[in-house]
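User: Please fill in residues for this 680-position structure.
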């Protein structure tokens, strides 16, 4: 059984010090751009260099998060940033955007890449896909049980799992709510934490139905290690250093088999206590908000927590060997526990006037290692018994030895990578297309055949678990099966696909990488859904090599940004109540119960957001309060190969289609989505 790494967040240099001095094995940080926590202080390139040197001095790893969606015009700046970070010797990149994955591989074929939790890998098929693509580690979705995590560990890829910190209501942090209501994209590091605002299924103006307690799996560290988890991750790049110190300390204690200090951990930050989340499979008492008492408890423990990281703690044992020969320079050799060694020379040894230098004197002078990360583990001395040096000379020799040892440790622990010079292509521009429609329905119904008779209706998109032989055989080639963005029961998804294939259905809309691998293995025709978050031409190029025929672009793109997405046919989400959250724990059930289901959550402004369960997949979806409407703006989307009309919550799909065919405006409440206003 391997010992799992303790991985700490650092949104600032002080938090980085706190993590290392308290015993973290690795730290993850973000740059000033391209990270999923833009509200943190984060690191510019000089700060990133210092962070890398400090981590490597401590023998720790430094992981750099570049786990956001990237738009085409940002790629030149992104490429420069990546090149600089690779030269600094970061130990791995965390990535969610396939285009960014593609770019990193172009710049350096051997730098380690970790799949961010926002890639929504939550099944063995997804992990195997990552393994086949040279990804060295997956950060699995936070919504998994112990059994589900253990199954992914068995694939042989390194598994990193969150064990402490805030939980997103939407699976893997893939949330569209913040972007939709405030243009602040969670997928681009600008989440406004809309889930912490008042939402209620029963009209409670003070209810926070989407706010989860913080996760704490510290008591389960031994189990996670037994199951093969490689890295225990703490969430919190926006948190203060004291929080990092408390979380790392608790995990160090738990990993060592000691009783962790959960009281202090709870006091420094909690939302009405902790939850074990989805780990035990119970999913009870998960909801909570930060209360006044939580804040007061934090204020009490902050001073004592600050003491944990104010000064370096001796962590690295040093063996020393000293040569003291009269008439020759004193020589000090140092060797750490990793076998890294240095040798430094000092002043010439003088004949002793009174007492010659001996071992006790050397132990007193050379053992003064306070203020460093070293502790003296052994000292050997070759003394001729006649020579001496003053204490100041031994102090100077010790200091120089530590300087050289620091430099040697940094050099030894800093990875070197192959670098390639790349030239980015000019921004492409999409051509024009005759408008075609793909219509999403809940199931095959009386309207479906009528819709398919329309020459501009290319396909109907139906849930894979609903199709049957009731669909006329002649129509099945124009039925694209849809799959849930998240379903931990992979065997169930495979069964749906196998049954559908046996009936003659062959087209599938993939929402995550597990779908891609699974559908390819079954010989099905692949299309990409919004869950893939396609947002740039590099991503489209990648998906094309994955055998996808086309893809629905991220709804966070503006029309102007979508025109750069070429190389693979693309679609735009042009109508419907857009899904903004996919959840494994139903907030309506938690507040009102299934028997009293209201099928919606009302926010503080009185808007109601529809909420519906997909029981077969074990998920709940929250939709935007009003539909996206672009019937009268379609000409601006003529570069799209097809437009998606999502009639999941609209029973009269025929009327929607007619409105779009005629380019009609609507008098009902609606939104233009993010097509014109975009996101931060």
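Assistant: Residues filled in for all 680 positions:
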């Amino acid at each position: 059984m391997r010992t799992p790494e303790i991985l700490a967040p650092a949104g600032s240099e002080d938090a980085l010090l706190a993590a290392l001095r308290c015993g973290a094995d690795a730290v993850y940080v973000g740059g000033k751009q391209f990270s999923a926590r833009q509200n943190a202080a984060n690191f510019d390139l000089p700060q990133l260099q210092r962070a890398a040197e400090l981590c490597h001095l401590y023998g720790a790893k430094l992981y750099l998060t570049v786990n956001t969606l990237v738009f085409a015009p940002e790629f030149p700046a992104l490429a420069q940033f990546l090149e600089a970070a690779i030269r600094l010797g970061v130990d791995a990149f965390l990535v969610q955007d396939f285009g960014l994955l593609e770019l990193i591989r172009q710049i350096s074929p051997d730098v380690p890449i970790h799949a961010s939790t926002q890639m929504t890998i939550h099944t063995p098929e997804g992990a195997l896909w990552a393994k086949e693509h040279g990804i060295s580690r997956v950060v699995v979705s936070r919504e998994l049980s112990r059994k589900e995590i253990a199954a992914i560990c068995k694939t042989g890829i390194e598994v990193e799992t969150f064990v402490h910190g805030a939980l997103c209501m939407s699976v893997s942090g893939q949330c569209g709510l913040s972007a939709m209501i405030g243009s602040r994209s969670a997928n681009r590091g600008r989440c406004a934490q809309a889930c912490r605002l008042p939402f209620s299924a029963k009209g409670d103006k003070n209810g926070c139905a989407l706010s989860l307690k913080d996760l704490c799996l510290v008591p389960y560290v031994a189990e996670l290690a037994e199951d093969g988890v490689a890295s225990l991750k703490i969430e919190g790049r926006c948190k203060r250093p004291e929080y990092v110190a408390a979380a790392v300390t608790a995990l160090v204690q738990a990993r060592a088999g000691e009783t962790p200090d959960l009281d202090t951990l709870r006091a420094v930050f909690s939302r009405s206590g902790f939850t074990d989340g989805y780990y035990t499979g119970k999913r009870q008492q998960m909801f909570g908000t930060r209360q006044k008492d939580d804040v007061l408890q934090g204020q009490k423990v902050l001073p004592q927590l600050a003491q944990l990281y104010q000064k370096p703690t001796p962590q690295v044992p040093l063996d020393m060997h000293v040569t003291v020969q009269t008439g020759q320079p004193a020589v000090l050799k140092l060797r750490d526990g990793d076998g890294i060694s240095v040798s430094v020379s000092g002043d010439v040894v003088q004949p002793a006037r009174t007492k010659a230098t001996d071992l006790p004197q050397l132990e007193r002078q050379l053992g003064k290692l306070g203020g460093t990360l070293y502790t003296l583990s052994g000292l050997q001395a070759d003394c001729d018994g006649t020579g001496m040096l003053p204490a100041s000379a031994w102090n100077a020799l010790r200091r120089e030895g530590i300087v050289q040892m620091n430099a040697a440790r940094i050099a030894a622990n800093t990875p070197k990578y192959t670098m390639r010079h790349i030239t980015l292509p000019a921004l492409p521009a999409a051509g024009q297309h005759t408008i075609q429609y793909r219509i999403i329905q809940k199931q095959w119904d009386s309207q479906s055949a009528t819709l398919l008779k329309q020459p501009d209706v290319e396909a109907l998109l139906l849930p894979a678990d609903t199709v049957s032989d009731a669909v006329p055989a002649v129509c099945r080639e124009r039925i694209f099966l849809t799959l849930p963005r998240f379903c931990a029961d992979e065997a169930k998804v495979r069964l749906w696909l196998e049954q559908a294939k046996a009936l003659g259905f062959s087209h599938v809309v993939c929402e995550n990488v597990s779908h891609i691998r699974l559908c390819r293995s079954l010989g099905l025709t692949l299309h990409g859904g919004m869950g893939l978050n396609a947002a740039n031409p590099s991503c489209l190029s990648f998906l094309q090599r994955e055998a996808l025929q086309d893809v629905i672009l991220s709804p966070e793109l503006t029309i102007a940004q979508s025109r750069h997405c070429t190389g693979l046919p693309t679609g735009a989400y042009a109508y419907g109540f857009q899904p903004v959250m996919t959840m494994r724990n139903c907030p309506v059930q938690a507040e009102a119960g299934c028997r009293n289901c209201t099928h919606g959550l009302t926010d503080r402004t009185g808007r109601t957001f529809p909420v519906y369960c997909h029981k077969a997949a074990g998920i709940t979806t929250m939709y935007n309060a009003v539909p996206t409407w672009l019937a009268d703006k379609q000409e601006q989307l003529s570069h799209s190969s097809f437009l998606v009309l999502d009639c999941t919550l609209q029973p009269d799909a025929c009327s929607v289609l007619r409105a779009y065919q005629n380019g009609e405006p609507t008098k009902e409440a609606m939104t233009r989505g993010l097509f014109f206003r975009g996101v931060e």
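For context: The chain has three domains: 5-167+212-306, 316-413, 437-578+624-662.
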